[in-house]
Fold this protein.
Amino acid sequence: MDYAIEVNNIVKKYKDVVALKGVTFNVKRGEIFGILGPNGAGKTTLISILTTILKPTSGTAKVNGYDIIKEQQKVRESIGIVFQDPSLDNRLTVKENLYIGASLYNVPKNKREEKINELLEFFELKEVENKLVRYLSGGMKRKVEIARSLLSDPKVLFLDEPTTGLDPDIRYNLWNYIKNMVKEYDVTVFIATHYMEEAEELCNRVAIIDKGEIKVIGEPEELKKSLEGDIVMIKTKDNIDIKSDYIRDIKKVEEGYVITVKDSERFLGELFEYVKNKNIKIDSVSIRKPTLGEVFLYYTGKELR
Ligand code: ATP
């Protein structure tokens, strides 16, 4: 298999903090691959290593077939990055920012205008091309940054938390551009996110990372199925302390209990028996399929907020 990114046992230590504890995975060409985890999980560190900004303490990785330590220049020439913190010049217009990007990326002079116009059209930014960046909305600024990262025709694009701070509808809109971009520009996307919906809606595959360790990797649907069960939500004011082999996880919430079970039918049988014997008053019981949030909870033992 021809991989866009191959990561082999990467460890990164900052003095006594171990930010990555031996991370291994591959990203296929043309994929949108998400790394999902809370703040401090090690996502930015991983992106910094894969984009040659930081050196790993140990381990190896290849991006576009180039070694991130021995072939840094080749790696850099074949990637694009959008950093977590905005990096556009607010005092310049959209087009001026793109021109600076084109000269930084060594886009041939006679191709710059054409390339910039093409990207402005693709991201529907033509109308604001002469506006100062400082007057753009957050979503538009993000589009300009992504457009700029595509100027060098990267094969792999790294996006570090690209929709943080944006309104949900604008976030959704940006996902559509990213999905279309993969097809139009034949690029592989590596995206760090702490948004569950972003991982679920946008990514073909997701790696769940927590405290520097990858807990599980798979397609969002596959990960949800891997829980092999259902979520039973019980609304009650009473205390429930049921023991059952079918329970994978039980959590007390404000209105009652959220229980992850292997076989909801059999579990419900046990539950009703228990409730009858203990004289517990139940307001309602509902069953649903697990979300990626429950997958996260299952593999990391905590909720991602
Ligand atoms: P965020 O979304 O908040 O950036 P993250 O998942 O990207 O989170 P990292 O920024 O990679 O996580 O941080 C991973 C761990 O390494 C954290 O414990 C962080 O405090 C630590 N860390 C990151 N950079 C440094 C540094 N330069 N020196 C010391 N510790 C660091």
